[in-house]
Specification:
globular, 428 residues, Growth Hormone, Chain: A, mainly alpha, 83% helix
Length: 428
């Protein structure tokens, strides 16, 4: 009996530590999501009025351009985390993201300062791009390193519990504002509210992260990390298979995330003429399911393995994404099916993302390895997703975008087949 009690205590989840590690990620994705979600309201505020479609494309181009600073942030902040520690790196990322959010919420409009407005918007987004590039890799490394081998899937689930919760807050906020404010008021000033709220969340996240302790495995390996020369080249020379695998499954993960959480909102409203209240409500309900499924799916991977779970996700996405796209139209039922099916499938990946990525690289290269190659993939496929969908929609070719996602799913399926099964294994 005493042994059983000791075993339960030994494996009790450190919930406070897990949420403290994940809260920065929640802020990162809250800020990143509200930009895409509320772009339909503020696009014409930062670019010349008269052509709403062009203003939205320019806004998404800014969104995409900022993504290309993510690999730089991943390399710089990932290396910083490998040498100086996961904790100081995670504190720095949350400061950058919160600062960028507040700046956007206070920016002057095009009517007030002309072309200085989009330039300032771009600078704020660059700061957030650098921040997010470091956040994903460093928070993933932290969660992977503090987890017992047999429970790494469960610990990893908190990463997207925080992300999903942040997106849920953003979508609920969008629903409430769309329901209670006129479109004129949302365009004039209502869109600023979420960005200023991001600054408040940043202060809370900073306070929580200051209580974190550094991981033991980093402390053991920090001297090794400092001796690594040309670390980015080392990831390619010594771990090329891991790099290819990371890029392969991250491509599909990125396309899924930015399709369902970003691109579809404006696409449904602007192109398919769906009611914005219905879109926000469907996304909110689906996101609640997305959050609820993270921990069970993480636990499932600890029991049955990461690889089968990922293969089901890739195959189902390849088969279903194009049929689902036909349901993006006016009416709540169809929108609910699209968002709920898409995001529930996606939990098979998100629930174990930190575990999978952490298991690819050794400790002295983990922050940089994830940060550089994951963020390069996100920049290429994620940052461009809303822009590509909007441009294709304007050309009357929106169906091509969903075939593009299906092709990415097929590629990811064959890449995932090359992964070793890592459930229960020790980190390198």
């Amino acid at each position: 009996m005493a042994d059983a009690t000791t075993e339960r205590l030994r494996h009790r989840l450190p919930v406070k530590k897990l949420f403290a590690a994940s809260v920065g990620n929640a802020l990162e994705w809250f800020d990143w999501t509200i930009y895409a979600t509320f772009s339909i309201y503020f696009a014409s505020e930062f670019f010349p009025k008269g052509n709403e479609a062009l203003a939205l494309i320019n806004t998404f181009a800014t969104y995409a351009l900022a993504f290309f600073f993510r690999p730089l942030g991943g390399m710089l902040l990932g290396r910083f985390a490998d040498v100086k520690g996961r904790k100081p790196a995670m504190i720095l990322t949350i400061v950058l993201m919160a600062g960028g959010s507040v700046a956007i919420g206070l920016l002057p409009t095009f009517d007030q300062v002309g072309w200085l407005a989009p330039i300032l918007l771009l600078l704020a987004r660059v700061a957030q791009g650098l921040s997010l590039g470091g956040e994903v890799s460093n928070a993933s490394a932290y969660l992977g390193e503090i987890a017992p081998p047999a429970r790494r899937g469960r610990y990893s689930a908190f990463f997207y519990i925080s992300t999903g919760s942040a997106v849920l807050i953003a979508s609920i906020l969008g629903f409430v504002l769309a329901r209670t404010m006129s479109k004129a008021d949302l365009t004039a000033y209502g869109w600023r509210i979420p960005f200023l709220l991001g600054g408040v969340l940043g202060i809370i996240g900073l306070w929580l992260r200051r209580s974190l302790a550094e991981t033991e495995i980093f402390e053991e390996k920090k001297s090794t990390a400092r001796r690594v020369e040309r670390p980015l080249r080392t990831t390619l020379r010594e771990h090329p298979r891991a790099v290819v695998q990371l890029v392969g499954f991250s491509m599909l993960s990125t396309l899924c995330y930015y399709t369902f959480f970003s691109a579809l909102t404006s696409f449904a409203v602007k192109t398919r003429k769906a009611d914005d209240v219905d879109v926000f409500l469907a996304l909110s309900i689906a996101t609640a399911l997305f959050v609820a499924l993270q921990y069970p799916m993480g636990a499932l991977s600890d029991r049955f393995g990461r690889k089968p779970q990922l293969l089901v996700w890739a195959a189902a996405t390849a088969i279903l994404i194009v049929p689902l796209s036909t349901l993006v139209r006016p009416g709540l039922p169809g929108l609910l099916v699209v968002f709920c099916v898409g995001l529930c499938l996606y939990t098979a990946m998100t629930s174990i993302a930190p575990a999978i990525m952490s298991e690819l690289f050794p400790t002295e290269l983990r922050g940089l390895g994830i940060g550089a190659w994951y963020n390069l993939t996100v920049a290429l496929f994620g940052g461009t997703a809303p822009l590509v969908l909007t441009a294709l929609s304007d050309a009357g070719l929106s169906t091509l975008f969903f075939w593009y996602v299906a092709a990415g799913a097929v590629i990811a399926f064959f890449v995932i087949r090359t992964l070793p099964e890592t459930k229960g294994s020790d980190l390198r």
